[in-house]
Amino acid sequence: MTHDAPARHHAFLGGPLRGEGVRLLPWPGPSGQPCYLQSDNDSGYLSRLADRTEESQLDAGAELVDLATEMLDDLRTLADRLSHALRDTLRVAVSRGDRLPRPAYQDAVHGDDDGPHLPAEAFG
């Protein structure tokens, strides 16, 4: 017999405490709530179906862990390559910036001259 709402619960899924011949099934009830099987026969149809479903879920979980590990490795490689490319790009930008002629107004700011090199008409 399956139960959808037993009186005593686990903290994790809201299920009954261990023992008592009650098993949390590996699928949810109709409204998404935990679903339970109360039986003293571990070889019954629902118990075997639950065993096969749990095995499938564990296999899927293991595959996802492997996939996530591969993806994280790929992301680390990508992040490393992107950071190297950005460092190279910044080095090129600094190098090119250093080769540009210095604007006239910078001479005034850095004290190389008495003022800007603009005609008086430029100030209105």
Write the layout of secondary structure elements.
Layout: E1 2-3, E2 22-28, E3 34-38, H1 45-99, H2 104-109
Antiparallel strand pairs: 1-3, 2-3
Question: How would you characterize this protein structure?
Answer:
Residues 96-124 are annotated as: Disordered. The protein has helices at 45-99, 104-109; strands spanning 2-3, 22-28, 34-38. The chain is mainly α. It has two domains: 1-40, no CATH class; 42-97. The protein is rod-shaped and about 100 Å long. It starts with a strand and ends in a 15-residue tail after the last helix. Mean pLDDT is 82; it is low at 4-9.
| Total strand segments | 3
Form type? rod-shaped
Widest β-sheet, arrangement of strands? 1-3-2
Helix content: 40-55%
Structural class: mainly alpha
**Distance between the amino and carboxyl termini:** 94 Å
Q: SSE order, as H and E?
A: EEEHH
Radius of gyration: 35 Å
As an assembly, this protein is single chain
The average pLDDT is 82
- What fraction of residues sit in β-strands? 5-15%
Largest β-sheet summary: 3 strands, antiparallel
Poorly predicted ranges: 4-9
**Number of alpha- plus pi-helical segments:** 2
List keywords for this structure.
single chain; 2 domains; three-stranded antiparallel beta sheet; 2 helices; 49% helix; 11% strand
What's this model, at a glance?
This protein has 124 residues and is mainly alpha-helical. Helix content is 49%, strand content 11%. It has a three-stranded antiparallel sheet, with helices on one face.
